[in-house]
User: Fold these one by one.
Assistant:
Number 1:
Amino acid sequence: MKPALDNRHTDLDVMLPFRPAAVTWDAGDWAGLATSRRFGLGLALVLISWILIDSASAQMVGTQGQTVWQTLVKWTPLMMFGPKGEFGGFVLNIVVSFIAMALGTFLGLWLGLGQASPNRFISRSSWAVTQLFRNSPWLVLLFYFMLLLPFFIRIGDTQIEVSGWAKATFALSLPIMANVSEIVRGSMASIPTGQWDSAESLAFSRTQTIWRIILPQCIKRMIPPWMNWYCILTMSTPLISILGVNDGMTLTQDALAAEGRSEFLIPMYLWLMSWFFIYSYPIAMLTRKLENRFAVNQ
Amino acid sequence: METVAEWFLWLKEAHGIKLTIFYDELDRTRFIGGVWTTIHLSFVCVLASIVIGIAGAWMQMSPLVWVRRIMGGYIAFFRNTPPLVQLYFFYFAVDSALSGLLGIRGGILSSYGWAVITLSFFAGAFNTEIFRAGIEAVPKSTTEAAQALGYSRFQIYRYITFPLAYRVCLPALNNNLVNLVKTTTVAYAIAVPETLYIANQIWSDEYNVPEMMNVVWVVYILLVGVLVWLMHRWEKAIRVPGFGQ
């Protein structure tokens, strides 16, 4: 979701910079968030509505004698950390997002450099790979690699089982790779050509120019879109539940099936969504803040 | 058509590649139906999300602080929660709660209906931000100049603000709409019979997972590729001269 015409001014001030914001409200700074009045007000509202929902539903329960709140508390450890002795739950979503992001960033950096290569074959094929994974739906990629990668890898005589979540992580890292590749290419293109020329006149080799001159300047521009993609990736991790990985979504549905009562559906799903929200919202705000700060310096 | 079917039959006999959709009447009809569902689901969602975006951007600039806050909350909610969970939430939880409340048996909307609603509001949240940023990119001095020339408020919006704003936000909007088309695959989870879902049915019946998986991938690459190409042409055709690159 990069703004296409970011922060470039023309001499004629026909248009102001186009900048879709992550969120409308501007909470002062990072540390000030927790103490800001608006945040406190919002938190109080959420808590009050919880208590209201809870007490309202406490009257309609009765038979099993458990309120919505008690039920949520009962299932929270399972939804958060997975079944005992296994790795799963919401924590798995976060771990998958970390690994997929790291892998995708690493691969995407090389792919992006490949796109900028003077060798036509390398740049064309890097471009093709980037477009291929950028334009495929995430769920299709997940299906593709979950179903077609082997269940076992044989090295010599030992068989190593490839777990579902490892394959899912790999599949999720591919669209990240493609988008990081585009971020790298775009930010390299935004560095003035004078930088390349002066590096050449100082007898830097091409490799030295890229690693010591161009990329360090790119990092600042790459961080906000990169963080944006991290948020999108985290929001996509529940897709792995469709393929049977025991993530937070799967376990929430298991818990709902075990309870088997339709009045728990809304609170339970909201409970899970609130975890994602609490995790992602601060990152989105920080992204917006960094975008604004870097925009001024340009 | 006959020769194509024969060639794929030969492919199956000679190499064991079972592309049933090319020679089996039933599978072909099913698959084309699936692709068609993807296309019209995308089309309806794109239109609805644009309408939501325009209405949302208008509400976000409302003088009433609570309207703005509610819009802020809507955007924050849909942007920071997973689309799959949103889909489950609306299809399973909201549907059963509403049908219980209204006393309707068997749910109030089909899975297709809930997919349209959820995905449109999901993409609409992004569109709202994009449109608002586009409108804000038109400087006040420009609209004031129009005012001085005797344009009415509506005329200013119709002839000055809108043509400029939509040109500036088109690249970001297109990006989001392409994303929306890719996100329609998530409707698989609530059994909307779109391409991926139908392909799953076919490979369960025919045991041809690798073949169908590749077909699905190619179909989506083509669909999204055509869309990206069209949007790109459009962007080029209407871009504001002397602005941007």
Note: Residues 25-60 of chain B form the longest helix (36 residues).
Number 2:
Amino acid sequence: MSVLRACRWLEQALTRVELGAALLAFAGMLALSVADIVGRNLFHATLPGGDLVLRQLVLWVALPGAALAVAAQRHLHLDPANLAARPAWQKLTAIPFNLAAAFVCALLTQAAWVYWQDEWQYQSAEAVWLAWLGLILPIAFGLLALHFLLRAVLAMQEPDKAA
Amino acid sequence: MTTLLFIVLALVGLPLFIVLGAAALTATHEAQLDPALLMVEFARLAASPNLVAIPLFVLAGAVLGQGGAPKRLVRFFNALLGWMPAGIAWVAVLTCMVFTAFSGASGVTILALGGLLYPMLKHEDYPDKFALGLITSGGSMGLLLPPSLAVLLYGVVAQVNIGDLFVAGLLPTALLFVMVGAYALLRGARGAPRHHFRLRELTLAARASWTDLLLPVGVIGGLAGGFLTVAELAACTALYALLLETLIHREINLKQLVWVVHEAAVLVGSLFIILGLSLGLTNLLIDAQVPMRLLDWVQAKVTSPLEFLMWMNLALLAVGCMMDIFSAIVIVTPLLLPLATHFGIHPVHLGIVILANLEIGYLTPPVGINLFLASQRFKKPVFAVFRATLPFLVVLLVWLLLLTYWPGVSLWGLG
């Protein structure tokens, strides 16, 4: 398998996993919200820890969503001169921009990993599942770094399509 | 020097969250702090109960946009208001406003409704320039209505009651509706034919769209009545929209639903990653006393609240020209809030003024996203679209002045 095909395959596989995670997180948010409303109004009780999980699921929608946005090239940017519309500019910047972005994301992954280890260490035994849910932070920043790296490799392999 | 480099990198098109992340990492390095502190702030995204509402409202908007709601709403408002002088123009403004509130002003309004409303306006002999300008500017006009994403985001960032913000946005939106409608009456509808009111068509249209019309009524009622929290309301809205488009109207199948979730996740992801990283950066800026120094500087230059509001408007219009609305809210609000508090400006009033400014930013080059979307949608040059929106831009600027210097329009519901 050529590097190009391998990169494309990996990007598609990652996108499917991220979309699956976002889909499940959305479904979980809806189910927990409904359970909360029904439980509170009809049974005067709510799911234990339901609110905490619901809030954590925001990260489980947002962070895979951010990774999907890299693959879809839909991250917010300023670009007041509308440089993105110029193929020559895109061709020139695709590799350095994606590599720089991958580097920043790698540093953020490291920061997120250190943060998660601290959380894990100081979490009480009853709330250790919350730390597991928090694992999305280092994983997602790692995925972002990988996506940008793949984009850079794809731009190297097929410079005309990067433009 | 480093700050200048980051600004240049942002201006040449590096994703904003990368620039913010790099700036925050550099700031922690310079302050000899552990970069893990940035993630402490990032994880606060999971601490705000109101933030849960944003992904769910985005999902609801994406479902409605992909489904048949735009068509049904246009038909209903046309049957309701189409008989009035400049009827179709009123219909266009109202439909755009309602739809923008649900679609999060992400440009979906122009894409989803433009194809329906633009031909309708042309068919009624409205000048091409007027029709183009109305649809383009209409794409951001419902930004203050519940459940607008921009209002939710401002509420979260400024820690202001979201219900108060939504109530505060009702009168300004009604005022804008009247102002744009009046302009249409005076300028656009000169040759437009009048139609008779047809009760049968209204009944049929209402029967087809009553389920859609329940949504804004339910959201406003739920917020005003305090029956549900904002997050619960968002969950109910998303579920309702899903049921409506998948089971009742059957406009969205399973494959399309996966695409809708993809679109919603991309929008939420691209927004929240900026929000999470800017929380960390803002904290570092506060540690470095940047807002305090900014306050000292402004105090030395500006003496009255009116003067402050004038300078703030000019600065925000400039920001709106350069930045998309969500990034601007996240970055600008923490800097403006202490200044506004110092000058005795209510945070709800401040929010409405900030959002009104940024609403205008949708139409101002070089980053007026609505100009580009309309240019693509209607196959017109961007400059032609900009020229067509100019009269509406003037109406919006007059509206902004009214909102800025007449706080009662925003604060009427706060007692």
Note: The radius of gyration of chain B is 22 Å.
